[in-house]
Design goal:
The protein is mainly alpha-helical and 305 residues long. The protein has one domain. The chain is built from ten helices and four strands. The chain has helices at 14-31, 36-45, 50-74, 80-107, 110-141, 174-190, 195-205, 210-235, 241-262, 267-290, and strands at residues 2-5, 10-13, 161-164, 169-172. A two-stranded antiparallel sheet has the order 1-2. Strands 3-4 form a two-stranded antiparallel ribbon. A hairpin with a 4-residue loop joins strand 1 (2-5) and strand 2 (10-13). The radius of gyration is 19 Å and the shape is globular.
């Protein structure tokens, strides 16, 4: 069943979009990531223009993340205080990111920037997670004790400390604010929730327990991506509601399924699965940028960049 997307100006199969939304929703529930880092490139592959994919995908992330958070709140695995600190940084970062996005759009360079950002970030994050997860699985098989995290690193020497009871932490608010800021910028430029950066940062940088990380990450993602969508809709007019609704329906259903699957897998198994997916998408995008397109010239609207 083909459906015409007015803002994207392309026709796409409605069931394909529902399916993509469902798959990304499952990932959202399993890993605590908004899923945008996989969905946005998938939208590129089916012919959605990058500017529309980024702005619309932020909308879908809100729904799948909200659905996932409800499941985590029932289990009491959300650190609301930590989520709020991350959120403050995220909102500031999102505002800056949308300004940068608009500036690059006026120069006509936004499509290239979005794709390059994806290749770099997915390559780095996927590689690091894959190596770390492999080491964790090897240690488990040898029955070796897990590598101890340093209880005291440079973060513990920073001022403005706050107690985060759910996470069992007493640390400075500066690192969570910086993590939130970075994620906000990425949400605006790449149409991602930023969970694929936030989840590793919360585990390895802030030292949060893995069971609390997923729900807290989703809590912050909801508000930052909702704010980003609003800014894109009012300044760029690149949010395609028909596309957003189809992805949203699939995402909400998928997130509930993903949350149930996630509770049955070990943490290191979850991380290595996520790392493999990230690297596959990164490889596809890199090939897309390196290979010569079949059509060297494309027709754009008159007067457009």
């Amino acid at each position: 069943m083909q459906i015409y997307l007015p803002i994207a100006e392309v026709s796409v199969n409605a069931f394909l979009l529902l399916g993509l939304g469902g798959i990304v929703g499952i990932l959202s529930g399993m890993f605590g990531v908004g899923g945008g880092f996989l969905m946005t490139p998938l939208l590129f592959f089916i012919g959605i223009p990058p500017a529309v994919a980024v702005a619309t995908e932020a909308n879908q992330i809100v729904a799948s993340s909200f659905s996932g958070v409800l499941a985590h709140l029932k289990r009491r695995t959300v650190d609301l205080r930590m989520g709020t600190v991350l959120l403050i940084g995220g909102l500031i970062g999102a505002g800056f990111g949308v300004m940068l996005f608009n500036y690059l759009k006026s120069l006509g360079q936004v499509d290239l920037l979005v794709k390059l950002c994806y290749v770099v970030f997915l390559g780095v994050i996927g590689g690091l997670m894959f190596v770390e997860s492999l080491n964790a699985i090897r240690r488990t098989r040898k029955n070796a004790p897990p590598a101890k995290r340093k209880n005291h690193n440079w973060i513990h020497g920073l001022p403005f400390k706050m107690r985060f009871r759910v996470s069992g932490l007493y640390i400075s608010v500066i690192p969570p604010l910086i993590v939130g800021l970075l994620v906000g910028v990425l949400a605006a430029i790449m149409g991602v929730g930023g969970g694929f950066i936030m989840v590793p940062a919360m585990i390895y940088l802030l030292g949060m327990p893995t069971k609390v990380v997923v729900g807290t990450s989703l809590f912050q993602i909801i508000f930052v991506t909702a704010f980003t969508t609003l800014l894109h809709a009012t300044t760029n007019y690149t949010v395609d509601m028909a596309l957003a609704v189809l992805l949203l329906v699939g995402g909400v259903v998928g997130a509930q399924i993903g949350t149930r699957i996630g509770t049955r897998l070990k943490a290191e198994q979850l991380r290595i699965l996520l790392a493999i997916m990230v690297l596959v998408v990164c490889g596809n995008l890199a090939l897309d940028l390196l290979l010569m397109p079949s059509e060297l010239y494309s027709l754009g609207p008159a007067g457009g960049h």
